């Protein structure tokens, strides 16, 4: 019988040969890339790849070998396409996808739009980012905020994307797809809700509670202790505070920030009623200009894929093989297309990085649609 050492020596010999062949294959593939640039051909050739898989697995009955060889070749294809995209980048393809680098985003005198009334969490997030020197305008809906920036009535808009306990704000994702605005910054705001009522109210006098749906969800555990309360959804938390204040009825309560409670002269009946202690909301700053800070470290994209086996695998391989750290992936249905989805990806990196450029060119060429929301 062979000893472990003997077997390992044989493996080493085979690996040496494999590596030589691998190098040779990649060099040829790079040359193929050069021809493709000259001829204006696509890097990905799915028909050729399928033919190749058929060719190399032909005659194998053993399913282990058949699948193993097919998988090995999928990896080889991905790497050889990566090399070819690099040829395209080196020949001057716009790898930054039209984005311009800037030193700073926030500056004095910017016009900033937020959704909701004064004192809303969005207002607070906007002030955290832009400070006291900006001019703030509020609008009623998320869509209004996008339109205001598109039409130049504001330089930036601040919008909530997700909450750490209640999840994503789906409408904002859909609007980012629809409007041609870019994410240029983000703010993570710790969220702490109060239950507030008018001066004559107490926990015992409350019968109806008003707030934004998200805030109601975030305070579920607290609300479950008062099953008789009627829950009413409103546009946002600050509007709920305003409404309760104007109604001046001790039966009404608002779930809102302490700041909104103060702003509308309410009394705090219960503090920190959110179920998760470190509850926070992530807001993004959007602008019409396609800009990114030179020290930006996160990229958000949206991808539409053909409804085919392996299409998501192929896209993700560009992120993985370029060594990028993917921090989020989520999907949302495409409206009017049953069972078709868009994927939203976040990964770490800057548009200047070679690995980011390579991944983006690969994804762009191999998906039905790529939209870069921004680098921030
Ligand atoms: C090398 C090529 O480019 C890509 C990579 C392939 C491979 O590694 O064999 C096959 C098809 C293309 O998607 C080619 O077109 O031949």
UniProtKB/TrEMBL annotation:
Residues 300-376 form the ACT domain. CDD domains: ACT_CM-PDT (cd04905), PBP2_Ct-PDT_like (cd13631). It is found in: Cytoplasm. Gene3D superfamilies: 3.30.70.260, Chorismate mutase, Periplasmic binding protein-like II. Its main location: cytoplasm. The keyword Cell membrane does not apply. One of its GO terms (molecular function) is prephenate dehydratase activity. Keywords: Amino-acid biosynthesis, Aromatic amino acid biosynthesis, Cytoplasm, Isomerase, Lyase, Multifunctional enzyme, Phenylalanine biosynthesis. Residues 1-88 form the Chorismate mutase domain. Its EC number is 4.2.1.51. Residues 111-288 form the Prephenate dehydratase domain. Pfam families: CM_2, PDT. It catalyses: chorismate = prephenate; prephenate + H(+) = 3-phenylpyruvate + CO2 + H2O. This is Bifunctional chorismate mutase/prephenate dehydratase. It comes from Aequitasia blattaphilus.
């Amino acid at each position: 019988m062979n000893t472990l050492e003997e077997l390992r020596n044989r493996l080493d010999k085979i690996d040496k040969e494999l590596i030589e062949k691998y190098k040779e294959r990649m060099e040829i593939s790079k040359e193929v890339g050069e021809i493709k640039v000259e001829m204006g051909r696509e890097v990905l050739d799915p028909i050729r790849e399928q033919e190749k898989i058929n060719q190399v697995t032909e005659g194998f009955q053993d399913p282990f070998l058949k699948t193993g060889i097919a998988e090995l070749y999928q990896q080889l294809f991905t790497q050889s396409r990566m090399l070819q995209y690099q040829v395209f980048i080196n020949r001057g393809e716009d790898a930054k996808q039209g984005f311009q680098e800037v030193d700073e985003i926030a500056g004095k005198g910017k016009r900033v739009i937020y959704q909701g009334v004064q004192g809303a969490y969005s207002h607070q997030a906007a002030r955290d980012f832009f400070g006291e020197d900006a001019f703030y305008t509020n609008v009623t809906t998320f869509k209004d905020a996008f339109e205001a920036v598109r039409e130049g009535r504001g330089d930036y808009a601040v919008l909530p994307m997700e909450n750490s306990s209640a999840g994503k704000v789906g409408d904002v994702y859909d609007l980012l797809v629809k409007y041609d605005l870019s994410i240029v910054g983000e703010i993570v705001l710790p969220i702490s809700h109060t239950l507030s009522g008018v001066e004559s109210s107490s926990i015992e006098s409350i019968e109806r509670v008003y707030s934004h749906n998200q805030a109601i969800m975030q305070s579920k555990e607290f609300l479950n202790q008062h099953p008789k309360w009627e829950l009413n959804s409103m546009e946002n938390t600050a509007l709920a505070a305003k409404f309760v204040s104007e109604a001046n009825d001790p039966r009404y309560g608002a779930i809102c920030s302490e700041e909104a409670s103060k702003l509308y002269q309410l009394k705090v009946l219960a503090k920190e009623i959110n179920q998760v202690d470190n509850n926070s909301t992530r807001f993004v700053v959007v602008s019409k200009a396609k800009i990114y800070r030179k020290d930006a470290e996160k990229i958000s994209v949206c991808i539409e894929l053909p409804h085919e086996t392996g299409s998501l695998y192929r896209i993700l391989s560009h992120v993985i093989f370029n060594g990028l750290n993917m921090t989020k992936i989520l999907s949302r249905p495409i409206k009017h297309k049953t069972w078709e989805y868009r994927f939203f990806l976040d990964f770490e990196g800057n548009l200047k990085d070679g690995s980011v450029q390579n991944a983006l060119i690969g994804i762009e060429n191999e998906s039905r649609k790529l939209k870069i929301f921004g680098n921030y």
